[in-house]
Amino acid sequence: MNISNTDIINKIHLVISVCIVVPVSLVYGFNPSSQFDIHLNTIDEHNFFKAIMGLYLGVSVLWVLGVFKANYLKIALITNVVFMLGLGLGRLLSIIIDGTPTLGYQFGTIAELFLGCYGFWVLLRHQNTTNT
Question: What is the distance between the alpha carbons of residues 8 and 13, in angstroms, rounded to a whole number?
Answer without folding.
Answer: 9
